[in-house]
Amino acid sequence: MSLDFALSKPLVDYGRAVKEWSATECRPYAREADDRHAPPANWPEILDTSPVPLGRVDKPEAGQVPDFDEGYWVTKLVFTESIGYGDIWVSPTLGSGIGHLVVESMGTPEQLEKWYEPVVSSGLPTGFALTEPQFGTDTSMVATTATRDGDSWVLNGSKIFCSSGASSEYVVVFATTDKSLGAKGINAFVVPKGTPGFVVTRPNEHKLGIRSWGTSALAFDDCAIPLENRLGWTADGSVPAKRSGQSGALGALAYNRPNMAALATGLAQASLDVAGEILAGQKAGFTPRRWSAVEAELTNMNHALERGRRLNYKAQYLVDAGKPDRALAAMGKGYSPQTCERVIRRCIQLLGPEGTSQDLLLEKWYRDVKIMDIFEGSGQAQRIVVGRTLMGRVAG
Fold first, then answer.
1. How far apart are CA 229 and CA 231, in angstroms?
2. Are 236 and 214 spatial neighbours (Cβ–Cβ below 8 Å)?
3. Which one of 29, 151, 269, 295 has the fewest CB atoms closer than 10 angstroms to its CB?
4. Cα–Cα distance between 120 and 361 in angstroms, integer?
5. Whole domain around residue 162: which residue ranges?
């Protein structure tokens, strides 16, 4: 079945403007951002050159991303791919994070008013602290503990690879209140920045790719927070929770997974365009038969990226329509980053030794895109979700 999502002209024009600006003004700083493990020092001035509003946290007066008929999540998909087409360093400077999505998924009306609505209106970053040194994908292995002490929860444990952990307004921390319950004992807690016992042990992890993104290591040492900071709880200790901490975490991730896929698509499309332009300039050195094979490969890779776009557009269209489909989001996340990794790798191979050189960005984008396949639920885990949806829980 063909999935054809024709975007409105205003959104197409906006996405094109962001894409062209990102490639022209932001891409030249990609190597610097990768080397210094941080955005370029003059990033605010670079963002000032954008011809369209970007929804900047550092400069709200520059304007928010416009509202389009397609809805918030489809618009974000277009925006994310267009920004990623220049380079990945830009996204975190605009304010990001998914901690507030967990609040939306699990919070009481009072918690939404306190921790969700202000963040959405301001765009300030929020952290999501789930991964620990001993596990990544298997969320049932959370070892950080939350122990009730009178009117407080006391957190103890450590987290790694927490996006925006060192710069966020608050971090949503997943901790177990009863280890004997396994995954059912996991709950989510809001820990504001500056809370005593909340320590950033490493502002930015040393990692393969997305080095300019602040992914932090955190420690919680007798970190006490009020009872109402447990999502789904009220100050008097009643528990009208919508879902458990584990399912709340996965639900929040499902909303953002297509955006991770879109960022990967932006990197892969940039790689294809760069490689295609270089190869076209070398056409005279190919035999007609070999050039025909190269053109066919480039065309097929573009088609592969388009299939991923359609999956992710449908997933986010359903979210905007109030009918989110976790399995469809998993399809997009399971397909796109892995496909994008293969596309970039093949572009490198087609260019030969030049493709691996630091004179080009393809080797950097290859390192970056691999992280997209791991972040927010690995591709392997997403394919298990899809399989279980199609075949029943017994699958996988």
1. 6
2. no
3. 151
4. 33
5. 126-243
CATH number at residue 139: 2.40.110.10
Question: pTM here?
Answer: 0.88
| Active-site annotation holds for 376 | yes
Q: For the chain, how are helix, strand and coil distributed in percent, rounded to 5?
A: 55, 15, 30
C-alpha–C-alpha distance, residues 83 and 98, integer Å:
18
Q: What is the pLDDT along the chain (396 residues), one digit of tens a residue?
A: 345 568 999 999 999 999 999 999 999 999 999 999 999 999 999 999 999 999 988 888 899 999 999 999 999 999 999 999 999 999 989 977 788 888 988 889 999 999 999 888 887 889 999 999 987 667 778 999 999 999 999 999 999 999 888 989 999 999 999 888 888 889 999 999 999 999 999 999 989 999 999 899 999 999 999 999 999 876 665 555 455 566 665 666 777 889 999 999 999 999 999 999 999 999 999 999 999 999 999 999 999 999 999 999 999 999 999 998 888 889 999 999 999 999 999 999 999 999 999 999 999 999 999 998 888 778 788 888 888 888 875 444
Whether the CA torsion 330, 336, 339, 340 is positive or negative: it is: negative
Q: Which of 212, 243, 274 is the last residue of a domain?
A: 243
Same domain for 197 and 281, yes or no, is no
What's 321's domain CATH number? Answer: 1.20.140.10
Same domain, 358 and 299: yes
Q: Give residue 71's region: left, alpha or beta (phi > 0; psi -120 to 50).
A: left
CA distance 228 to 114: 11
The answer on 255 and 166 residing in a single domain is no
Tokens at residue 18, please?
């962001």
Show which of 243, 268, 293 is a domain's final residue: 243
Same domain, 273 and 202: no
